[in-house]
Amino acid sequence: MNMRAPQLSFEPADELAALCKASGDPLRLNVLRALSNDSFGVLELAQIFATGQSGMSHHLKVLAQAGLVATRREGNAIFYRRALAQGDRLGGALHAALLGEVDELELPVDVQVRIGEVHGQRAAASQDFFARMAANFQAQQDLIAGLPQYRDSVLALLDALGFAEQATALEVGPGDGGFLPELARRFARVTALDNSPAMLELASLRCNKESLDNVELKLADALHDEYPAADCVVLNMVLHHFAAPAEALKQLAVRVKAGGSLLITELCSHNQSWARQACGDLWLGFEQDDLARWALAAGLTPGESLYVGLRNGFQIQVRHFAKPQFHQNGPITSSRAGSNGALTHR
After folding, report:
1. Measuring CA to CA, which residue among 103, 117, 21, 35 is closest to residue 69?
2. What Å distances lie between residue 316 and 67, 153, 154, 198, 206, CA to CA?
3. Is the distance from CB of 201 to CB of 219 less than 8 angstroms?
4. d(C-alpha 66, C-alpha 28), whole Å
5. Contact 266, 325 (CB under 8 A)
6. Residue 279 DSSP code
7. Do β-strands 168-172 and 189-194 pair in parallel, antiparallel, or remain unpaired?
8. What's the CA gap between 291 and 249, in Å, rounded?
């Protein structure tokens, strides 16, 4: 009489096996590499890796089941990102080691080209929006978070940093220039960059109206064109318009002088997808931890934060990131970047 062997359970081993299985495919490893500092939808990943949507969906399912990727829903779209390794969990050390090895990979040239194409498509959509909607810029902004709703919070953070009299500032994406008078009063020289001629014209009208003779406006790509570094770089409601926010933050960190500061005003993560069409947003806000993680990867140190709740259900985060300055004993953080959390509110 044949006896059926009992079904043995190896649940811990099953988890490790799923991790090993997920990493045992070259395409999946390259997907993890592509997601190192970015997030993509399944259609974008299918385009990047020149494969069918169904096939890419299968690979992403395997990666998700192994805990190697996480998902974030933005309206009707689902974006995939790399999941962080949890060192205190089973497989955490293996997960971390795998990502470390993956980051040493060089993506195939054609894949890099197609990633650039996806970023280009995102950027073109953003530029087209601002070219069309410049005349209604303020009305569109007010649908979610206009400058009056966060100006005082940004100024409180800015003034607490105590910049020197001759310090310089750079504002990326000044919009209609509404914040430039505040910067002009606090800094010896202010540079404002925008890649939209229509928006820069609005900022120019503001500067002329208020006689801001220490403000220079430049039509430029903030990530690729050459321009001087500044003691304070400001982005007010701009990061969600960048095609690759983590990479953008890394590039902008280079424009901050040693001992200087990067100030970012952004929406916290939300799920109101109408903001894409109404305000040209590429991203529906950001998780607070993501901004901090990206800043650390860019060589910046998280400082004070302010949080402003809005009646329409959105929440604004005003974040300060300091760039270390160096002396003979090694890197130190600027004395302006306090760490006592006195300005942190919810």
Report:
1. 35
2. 30, 10, 11, 26, 25
3. no
4. 12
5. no
6. H
7. parallel
8. 9
Residues 239, 249 contacting (CB under 8 angstroms): yes
Cα–Cα dist 250/234, whole Å: 14
- What letter represents residue 25's amino acid? D
pLDDT digits (tens, 9 = 90+) for 2-30: 556 555 555 677 778 888 888 899 999 99
Q: Quick: pLDDT tens for 152-179.
A: 999 999 999 999 999 999 999 999 999 9
Q: Which residues lie across from 238 on neighbouring strands?
A: none
Do residues 189 and 216 make contact, with C-beta atoms less than 8 angstroms apart? yes
Q: For residue 344, which phi and psi values (nearest 5 degrees)?
A: -85, 120
Q: Catalogue all structural domains in the chain, each as residue range(s) with its CATH number.
A: 11-107 (1.10.10.10), 134-332 (3.40.50.150)
Q: Model pTM greater than 0.90?
A: no
Amino acid letter for position 200: L
C-alpha to C-alpha distance for 273 and 282, rounded to whole angstroms: 10
Question: How far is it, in rounded angstroms, from Cα 87 to Cα 18?
Answer: 17
